[in-house]
Design a protein that fits this description.
about 190 residues; mainly beta; seven-stranded parallel sheet; six-stranded parallel sheet
Length: about 190
């Protein structure tokens, strides 16, 4: 709670490879300027509220190897300018290759985003689904602003969400993600 993590390779890594079902709650926290990944989960149980992950060399948020997630009032924005970034802000994954190169499925039990912003400087989508089982029904964006080009084929994932509109941050290249007074996000949440 009330933590700033910055200038790391990986801001926070939550992993289930050694122990089963770690649980972490992140509140009122900033994770910024990480050269690889801001928040990297490998099969974790994670709740995050009123927090910000910004400016990572690759993903801001990587939800891999399944897991269970809830994000409320969070902003994931990537305007990384130290090198060319080709990976999106948000990455979902539900499998891994074992030592024999066999695919092992690990379901995302839930990934819920409420009143969140997922945006960045890429020309295309800032969300990537790398899922073998395509169990996208466990993923939900409710009252979110997202930069995502696949909303037509995955419309069931989004409720009352805004697509591909600039959230109008004050000065994103300088890390100031306060919303300008004419932002399309203002007054669009569901009051959670």
């Amino acid at each position: 709670n009330n933590v700033v993590v910055k200038n790391a390779t990986i801001g926070i890594l939550v992993d289930t490879c050694v122990t089963s079902n770690p649980t972490i709650e992140i509140l009122n926290t900033k994770i910024e300027n990480c050269s690889y990944i801001g928040l990297y989960s490998r099969g974790a149980v994670l709740d995050m509220k009123n927090s910000l992950v910004q400016n990572s060399g690759n993903y801001n948020l990587a939800l891999t190897l399944g897991g269970s997630y809830q994000f409320v009032h969070c902003t994931f924005a990537n305007y990384w300018d130290y090198k060319t970034r080709t990976t999106p802000v948000l990455y979902f994954n539900d499998y891994y290759l074992d030592v024999n190169s066999n695919v092992q499925f690990r379901q995302i039990e839930k990934a819920e985003f409420y009143n969140c912003i997922v945006f960045g400087a890429l020309a295309d989508s800032e969300i990537e689904f790398d899922m073998i089982e395509q169990t996208l029904s466990t993923i939900r964006f409710d009252y979110c602003l997202v930069k995502y080009e696949g909303e037509n084929q995955n419309s069931h994932l989004f409720t009352n969400s805004i697509f591909n509109l600039d959230p109008l941050f004050v000065e994103p290249s300088e890390g100031d993600l306060h919303l300008q007074e004419n932002s399309p996000c203002i007054g669009k949440g569901n009051g959670i």
